[in-house]
Amino acid sequence: MFEEVDDFWQAIKARLIKETAKKEINFIGLELPPVIDAEKKFLLCPALSFCYVSTPMLKLTALGKTFGTVDALRPLDLEVPNGEFFSLLGPSGCGKTTLLRLLGGFEKPTSGQIWIDDRRIDELPPHQRQFNTVFQRYALFPHLSVFQNVAFGLQMKKVSADEVKVRVVQALELVQMTGFESRSTSTLSGGQQQRIAVARALINRP
């Protein structure tokens, strides 16, 4: 049994060393009994005397925003692991929209920093950030077709016409809106408009 356990940890160690080479995780030397912490952020193992900690995809440090004397967002510390589905809930006026606007670059923070994959981005303009927002009112362009709405972001990035066509088709398939390419957004239901807004955001691969 002990040989099997040792082989198991050796296999994990080999995998972690491989992942470390890709800069996805970091090693920290420790001498503690094996345990997974309550938040499942790291694994400790006595046989290997190390732990690994996943680098957060998003990290906010004391991020805050004030408008005059009003605290729209009190200083916030937050880490979101890579691959995690994260929901932000709260009452009206608590700062949810302000936070999203700060992440997208539509507002400048009064304090704090924003980090994405160990890169600070709070000083970058919106077009240099890999963020896409689906607005509450969808903000679709009424003078453009469904295809043109979904393709808009790629066209602004000067993506080739052939690639734009392929990715628009894929995005519409993803939201089950295939066949609506030539339709005007004004002819769509509210739910259909929402799906087009989602496709327009996801096509940029945020």
Report on the architecture of this protein.
It is a single chain. This protein has helices spanning 2-21, 96-104, 146-156, 161-174, 190-202, and strands at 25-29, 35-36, 42-45, 50-54, 56-67, 70-81, 111-116, 119-120. Residues 22-53 have low confidence and may be disordered. Strand 5 and strand 6 form a beta hairpin. Strands 1-4-3-2 form a 4-stranded antiparallel beta sheet, with helices on one face. A 4-stranded antiparallel beta sheet has the order 6-5-7-8, covered by helices on one side. The chain is α+β, with helices and mostly antiparallel strands. It has 5 helices and 8 strands; from the N terminus they run αββββββαββααα.
Termini separation comes to 46 Å
Largest sheet: spatial strand order: 1-4-3-2
Described by strand count, sense and barrel closure, the largest sheet is: 4 strands, antiparallel
What are the segments in which pLDDT stays under 50 over at least 5 consecutive residues? 22-53
- Strand tally is 8
How large is the count of helical segments?
5
SSE order: HEEEEEEHEEHHH
Strand content: 15-25%
What is the structural class?
alpha+beta
Helix content: 25-40%
Approximate shape: globular
| Mean pLDDT figure | 77
Rounded to the nearest angstrom, the radius of gyration is 22 Å
